[in-house]
TrEMBL record:
Residue ranges with Polar residues bias: 283-304
Protein name, entry field: Uncharacterized protein
Keywords: Membrane, Transmembrane, Transmembrane helix
Upper taxonomic lineage: Eukaryota, Sar, Stramenopiles, Ochrophyta, Pinguiophyceae
Protein's organism: Phaeomonas parva
Transmembrane segments: 21-40, 443-464, 498-519, 549-568
Length: 588
């Protein structure tokens, strides 16, 4: 019986040396490596998304609520006030190249082009249409929006301080006032406590048009009024804030029965995103066409999923928003919206608005050298020497804006978290472990990808050696080359595979510590989208744990395959191979 078993093992070893089996091993190794990379990528991407969700929730809880909200004609908010977030327009790229008549360089005549000047055109005296600098667009309906935060955050992570919660029967501790209108109770989680000396924060803003203004004192010609919400004693205010003579905030605590304080504010092409890039700023500078005078703005691409908890107060078209800010530039001083278009010579070539003679417009963009002039038929050159700086802004406004794009003024309240759930602190305590887990998973993905790519490259070398013979990129030839590849597979590949186990085991241990919290303890604690983030963690963390275990199994299979063959070789290779000078084939 022992001889039969030894004979079977010897036959197995003999089969293991065949070309077909060696190639089969390599194919299996490549497949296992690809599976390992895909699994590690899925686990990291899932974690990266949920860590950002938890950080965003904690940031909301950690931001002091808004207590006052106002508008001003000033260039800066009053001391102690915060400016509403602005939108960054990233400027206009340098444009076309205007060449005067007879522009020559290097024995060649150069003409104007819609593309930027090359070095030869510059040497010939051509002038580049200059770029426009970026602008932080901070005004809304020609007013600066200012807000003040004189209240306590729900949870201050730095000081580990939790703002007192409302206790039954709907009361707050000494030194704090109960905030909430009719129907706002301890039970539904919308009531909150605020320090008596600071007062209740605002819970909503509404925009009022002149026809909507029910209170006296609103200027009849101004439509940018906002209705705020907040009171220290649940009484009604007519006006809660005023800067100058035409800027008001109205407050009424009886408007909203169930509402938490306003915390987050934003201006953008869409509300901030739950997933995907946020929408506040232009992605890149406005660019010129290479064949005409058209320009193209680059607003941000759409959210994968916008945050529906942001409430829209007001919206403006992209053109309106740009016009407000471009006309504030120093180049456009003294120019009104009514005659602004006249300074844009690309669409209107009136001589009285030619930058070389007009008193307004900020001067010329392009000035040819003394004594040089454009060829009369060269429209690129003739328009550019007449275009003013303010006219260039109008051209971006007129040519680059999209009628379908709108800027939105939004706010988001403090995210709901029920009193009978784990505390803010309990959730915050999971942020660092989640971040550490995400980082360990990222290290695992990186190391796993690098090591598996190396293993796959070696496997491909083995296949090439078995099918084609000598590998061109590998030193040595014949048996020496085979021995070199054999060492790569047998010794070094095993070491490389072992390296992956360190971050993998760390990730498996880390995920087990926090998965149960989100799976079992936070059900029904937040609003729909906060709860979705928590539930996603409750689902994904165990899934990440299972994925890591699958990676471990795949890596063990990769590791055991060559080890088993090495053991077989040591135990049976000598007997079976006596008198046979042929060396065992490569191990994977």
């Amino acid at each position: 019986m022992a001889k039969e078993e030894e004979g079977a093992l010897a036959k197995l070893m003999k089969f293991a040396k065949t070309k077909e089996f060696v190639i089969f091993k390599c194919v299996v190794t490549i497949v296992l490596s690809i599976v390992s990379i895909v699994l590690a990528s899925e686990a990291f991407n899932a974690l990266d998304a949920v860590v950002g969700d938890i950080t965003g929730i904690l940031d909301n809880w950690g931001t002091p609520p808004v207590t006052e909200f106002t508008l001003t004609n000033a260039t800066a908010c009053p001391s102690g006030w915060e400016q509403y977030p602005d939108v960054k327009w990233r400027g206009l790229e340098a444009g076309a190249c205007a060449c005067p008549s007879g522009a020559t360089s290097g024995g060649q005549t150069w003409t104007s082009s819609y593309t930027s000047c090359n070095s030869n055109q510059t040497s010939a005296g051509c002038q580049q249409d200059p770029a426009l600098s970026s602008i932080n667009m901070k005004y809304w309906r020609n007013r600066l929006i200012c807000l003040r935060r004189e209240s306590e955050a729900a949870y201050n992570r730095d000081d580990d301080y939790i703002r007192p919660r409302v206790s039954e029967p709907d009361s707050c501790p000494s030194g704090y006032v109960f905030c909430g209108g009719p129907g706002t109770t301890y039970a539904n989680g919308f009531a909150h406590c605020a320090r008596t000396d600071l007062g209740c924060p605002l819970t909503s803003y509404d925009i009022l048009k002149p026809s909507d203004a029910a209170y006296s004192g609103f200027p009849s010609n101004y439509g940018g009024f906002f209705d705020g919400y907040g009171s220290t004693d649940n009484s009604e205010y007519d006006m809660l804030g005023r800067v100058g003579t035409d800027s008001y905030v109205e407050s009424s605590v009886t408007r909203f029965d169930e509402a938490l304080p306003v915390v987050d504010v934003a201006i953008g092409f869409a509300p901030p995103c739950i997933t995907g890039p946020n929408q506040e700023n232009y992605d890149s500078a406005t660019s010129w066409s290479s064949s005409n005078n058209d320009v193209t703005n680059d607003p941000p691409s759409s959210c994968n999923e916008a945050d529906p908890r942001y409430v829209e107060i007001d919206s403006l078209s992209e053109a309106e928003f740009m016009r407000e800010h471009f006309l504030r530039e120093s180049a456009c001083a003294g120019i009104s919206a009514n005659n602004w278009a006249n300074y844009d010579v690309y669409s209107s070539a009136g001589s009285s608005f030619d930058c070389r003679s007009a008193s307004l417009g900020g001067g010329c963009l392009v000035s040819l050298s003394s004594g040089r002039s454009c060829t009369s038929t060269d429209s690129i050159c003739t328009t550019r020497v007449r275009q003013s700086r303010c006219g260039q802004y109008h051209h971006v406004y007129d040519s680059g804006t999209d009628a379908s794009e709108r800027l939105k003024l939004t706010y988001r309240r403090q995210l709901l978290w029920q009193d009978d759930c784990p505390s803010y602190r309990d959730v915050a305590d999971k942020e660092d472990p989640l971040t550490d887990l995400r980082d360990a998973q990222g290290a695992l993905f990186t190391i796993n990808t690098i090591t598996n790519v190396i293993v796959m490259i070696v496997a491909c070398l083995v296949i090439y050696n078995q099918v084609m013979g000598d590998v061109p990129c590998v030193p040595y030839e014949g048996e020496k080359e085979k021995k070199f590849i054999e060492d790569l597979q047998g010794k070094y590949s095993v070491v490389i595979k072992l390296i992956k186990f360190i971050p993998l085991i760390i990730a498996i241990v880390a995920v087990g510590k926090i998965a149960r919290f989100f799976a079992n303890k936070v059900e029904g604690c937040g609003d729909q989208w906060t709860q979705d983030a928590m539930d996603y963690l409750g689902r994904e963390l165990p899934a990440v744990e299972q994925t890591n275990i699958q990676i471990l199994i795949v890596d063990l299979l990769q590791l055991m395959l060559p080890l088993i063959l090495i053991i077989f070789k040591k135990l049976f290779g000598k007997k079976e191979g006596e008198g046979d000078e042929k060396k065992p084939a490569d191990e994977v």
